[in-house]
Specification:
Elements lengths: L13 E17 L2 E18 L4 H8 L2 E3 L4 E3 L9 E8 L5 E11 L3 E2 L13 E7 L6 E5 L2 E4 L3 E5 L8 H6 L9 H4 L4 E2 L2 E2 L2
Antiparallel strand pairs: 1-2, 2-8, 3-4, 5-6, 6-8, 6-11, 7-8, 9-10, 12-13
Length: 196
């Protein structure tokens, strides 16, 4: 079927994101020589250190029951069928940004740290784990001359002459069909208005 996704909302204030890609490589020997290397890529795991989430948000992303009237989350049976897109940006040493959307993934139950209050400036954080996988949907668009097909993520980056408009990039989840620098850059004209 078609790739469908809701309107993006801010998840959390983030301190750090770690990324690990599951890979496998195997060398095949023929005539007593290593002649072929087979490579495979699996899921991508993001470890997100962030401020603690509100209970309703935590319940939503982990598939737990939440009672909005009583502001209560129940840690019990989970709905494991929930998938989410996840977007963020990072800055390189030149001050330019790289923008990322993972199109399909799920959140694990987060790790949390609790400490007694003191007169210091220490804070308690939450560690979210997001596992990104390929979409079931096959995108027909070509990216760099290759049909996109099943997609895990879309990554775009600023350069010295063109900067991406953050508001446009995070307004909707970017897919191979909408990953167009001419409509996402600062100064692009959309609907008769120019963004700066």
């Amino acid at each position: 079927g078609a790739y469908t996704v809701g309107t993006p909302v801010k998840l959390a204030y983030v301190a750090e994101i770690g990324k690990t890609v599951e890979t496998n490589s195997e060398t095949k020997f023929y005539d007593n020589k290593p002649l072929i290397v087979l490579n495979a890529e699996g899921a991508t795991t993001l470890t997100i250190t962030c401020a603690p989430l509100a209970l309703d948000v935590l319940a939503e992303i982990t598939g737990k029951a939440y009672d909005s009237t009583n502001k209560t989350m129940v840690e019990g049976v989970r709905d494991f069928g929930r998938n989410f897109a996840l977007g963020y940006r990072t800055r390189d040493t030149r001050g330019l940004y790289r923008y990322v959307w993972y199109l399909k993934g799920s959140f694990g139950v987060p790790d949390e740290t609790f400490a007694t209050e003191n007169a210091g400036t220490e804070t308690n954080n939450m560690t979210l784990t997001y596992t990104a996988v390929m979409t079931e949907h096959e995108f027909p668009e070509e990216i760099g001359g290759v049909v996109a097909g099943s997609v895990k993520s879309i990554i775009m980056a600023d350069d010295e002459t063109t900067q991406i408009d953050k508001a446009k990039f995070f307004k909707n989840v970017i897919t191979p069909a909408t990953a167009k620098i001419e409509t996402l850059k600062i100064g692009a004209t959309t609907g008769g208005t120019t963004t700066t």
